[in-house]
Every structure is written in C-alpha cells, then in structure tokens.
Specification:
The chain is mostly beta strands and 135 residues long. It has one domain: Uncharacterised protein PF14869 family, DUF4488 (Lipocalin). It has no helices and nine strands. An eight-stranded antiparallel beta barrel has the order 1-3-4-5-6-7-8-9. A hairpin with an 8-residue loop joins strand 4 and strand 5. It starts with 22 loop residues before the first strand and ends with a strand. This is Lipocalin-like domain-containing protein.
Length: 135
Amino acid sequence: MHCSCKQKLEHTSIHKTIDPLEGVWKQTNFYRLSNSDTIISDSTKVQHKIYLDGYVMWTSNATIDSLEWHGYGTYTYKSDTLTETLTSMSIPLRAYTNIYPIKIDLSKEDVLKQIIQYKNNDTIYQNIELYRRLK
C-alpha cells in the first residue's frame, strides 16, 4: 500500500479590475471659481478621501464657524465622471443633495483632480480640488 502526504494544488486565477481611485488621497489645493473667475485659492485646507471597494469616506477640517465636514457612502466611476452617493454627511450638506457627479482627471500618476460644478441663481460655480495619493 502506498500513501502520499502531498496535496495536489489547484491554481485558480482571480482577475480583479484595478480601480484607479482606490486608496487614500490628501487634498493639496482647493480653488473656487465663479463664472470662470477664481474667487478662492487655498493650499492650507486639510481634506482626506478614502476610496475602497466601491465605498467612499471623506473628512475635512472644520470651517471658521466650527462646522464639521464629512461624508460616507458609495461611489461609481465611469469614463471621466465619479459619482459619490452619500448615506451619511454633514448637516449643512443635507440641504443640497446626497448624489454628487464629479468630473475627474487621473492623467498624472498619483494625482487626482476633481471638479464639482453647481449653480446658484445665475452664477455657475466650480470647486476644483487637487489631491495626491498617500503611500
């Protein structure tokens, strides 16, 4: 009688789509434009975003009036548009919407540019946020 203690290994291949957003991002610059004119430029604002397995979480330093800023939810990414659907967010954000379509540019390695556009009366605003991936 012959016994073998060797186990037969099965090789399986798992193909996971690489998500270019996945990771931790730190904001490096923030700009607000009003009808294409820059009205705010800030490189001191602290904000971090985490993208992982279809979930997003972000937090930002408190504003001068001590309001906290945070968001948590899911995200989808297609072409040049990121859509964040927040299920938990700061109280002031609840007055607007919980779905944020965001134009993005990932053309530079470990650099993320997000452009959030909104309208108030006849004025078109753009928030431009630049991030770098933390490693």
